[in-house]
């Protein structure tokens, strides 16, 4: 008689720990921490505990187990939804996930009881012992990810809702309301086999979809970042040129007075030298026209000036005239990153006499063709035919270039041999 009574006592205690685990885990998964809601935790555990105890004593363990969804789970979802104003999906996901994460308790208890002739008392004791460590792991490592679901799309929420829901339905269908899991034989095995395969297939497809969307978002983010950076450079250069032009217009009267003074004093050499100096400054401040597109021209002119300052010869040939089918931010990003990489490589090339950059842009069969060549000295490391950099904050430019070309369904190639690096693209 002692053993059955002992078994009932530990079974009741185990139910108490199950309730404790489920409520605490569900609240934490819904981003309802204990420190900020101590009163709610105490009252929730107390009233749910009283309801479960009375139901257990009056109706028995079997009926309690079958009525658990209506006695505990649905009211807990309602509490999170109504009291804490969480999204209904988040409320359901939190409770269903807590139920799912409670399963390892049963696994551990069954595993330990296996070595003691499957003694139910041992199973309950082992389940009780593992409850707190498992709950700590859930709060520490699982809850942060479930909490972030409130920022995700409905598709992601649906996925995380369906996973614990399907397990919940199958668990109650096959083990609580029926015993098909133990008596169904081949029917249950075939069903579970098919269900697992189909579930894995669906998850794989959704995973690929999410991965594709994430990669697309990352590429767009790179494009936006580089476009914004390049826009700042364009604005700075244009502003500097306009400011310099305003200064020259303002000083024009003073220049003319000085030249007139030189001529009046019969000093033509000084006047000629002064005129030559003014012309040189004007040439340096002007933007040379390399192509018909103003934005591309500004980018190319900017890097041509930088190349001249660094004593790097730069040959530019732009015969293409049709740029209207491309977004100007994409073109600026592509040319700016390619020329900046070329300029950076040339600056590390010694001696200076071996430095050079060549830019050729032309049209062929309605395709815009781009070819950039430059000298290099440092070894170029390739991964999957794409140059990579191990330096911090480097390599983003190459990814941005690739994103632009792929956006317009183009092809590209990177080549390095005999001290010459080449980038070619057609789109």
Automatic annotation (TrEMBL):
Q: Does the keyword ATP-binding apply?
A: no
Q: Which organism is it from?
A: Roseburia faecis
Locate the transmembrane regions by residue number: 6-28, 40-57, 63-84, 122-143, 155-174, 180-206
| Name by which UniProt lists this protein | GHKL domain-containing protein
Source superkingdom = Bacteria
Key words, A-Z: Membrane, Transmembrane, Transmembrane helix
Q: What are the Sensor histidine kinase NatK-like C-terminal domain coordinates in residue numbering?
A: 327-422
For this protein, the record's InterPro entries field holds: HATPase_C_sf, NatK-like_C
């Amino acid at each position: 008689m002692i053993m059955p009574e002992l078994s009932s006592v530990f079974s009741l205690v185990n139910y108490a720990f199950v309730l404790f685990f489920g409520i605490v885990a569900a609240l934490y998964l819904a981003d309802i921490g204990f420190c900020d809601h101590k009163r709610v935790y105490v009252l929730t555990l107390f009233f749910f505990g009283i309801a479960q105890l009375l139901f257990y004593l009056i109706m028995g363990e079997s009926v309690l187990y079958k009525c658990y969804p209506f006695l505990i789970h649905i009211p807990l979802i309602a509490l999170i939804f109504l009291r804490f104003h969480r999204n209904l999906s988040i409320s359901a996901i939190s409770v269903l996930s807590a139920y799912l994460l409670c399963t390892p308790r049963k696994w551990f208890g069954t595993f330990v009881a296996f070595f003691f002739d499957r003694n139910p008392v041992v199973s309950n004791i082992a389940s009780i012992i593992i409850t707190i460590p498992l709950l700590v792991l859930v709060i520490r490592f699982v809850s942060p990810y479930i909490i972030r679901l409130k920022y995700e799309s409905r598709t992601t929420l649906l996925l995380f809702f369906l996973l614990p829901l399907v397990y919940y339905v199958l668990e109650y269908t096959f083990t609580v309301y029926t015993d098909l899991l133990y008596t169904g034989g081949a029917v249950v095995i075939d069903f579970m086999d098919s269900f697992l395969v189909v579930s894995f297939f669906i998850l794989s497809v959704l995973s690929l979809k999410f991965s594709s969307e994430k990669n697309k978002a990352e590429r767009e983010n790179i494009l936006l970042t580089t476009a914004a950076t390049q826009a700042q450079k364009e604005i700075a250069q244009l502003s500097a040129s306009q400011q310099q032009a305003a200064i020259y217009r303002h000083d024009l009267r003073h220049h003319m007075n000085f030249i007139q003074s030189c001529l009046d004093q019969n000093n033509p050499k000084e006047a000629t030298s002064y005129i030559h100096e003014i012309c040189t400054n004007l040439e340096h401040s002007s933007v040379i026209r390399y192509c018909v597109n103003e934005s591309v021209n500004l980018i190319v002119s900017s890097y041509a000036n930088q190349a001249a300052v660094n004593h790097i010869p730069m040959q530019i040939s732009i015969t293409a005239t049709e740029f209207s089918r491309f977004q100007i931010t994409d073109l600026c990003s592509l040319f700016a990153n390619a020329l900046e990489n070329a300029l950076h490589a040339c600056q590390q090339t010694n001696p200076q006499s071996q430095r050079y950059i060549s830019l050729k842009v032309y049209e062929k069969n309605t395709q815009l063709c781009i070819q950039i060549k430059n000298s290099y000295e440092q070894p170029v490391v390739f991964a999957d035919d794409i140059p990579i950099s191990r330096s911090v904050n480097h390599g983003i430019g190459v990814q941005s270039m690739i994103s632009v070309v792929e956006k317009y369904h183009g092809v590209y190639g990177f080549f390095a041999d005999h001290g010459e690096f080449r980038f070619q693209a057609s789109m």
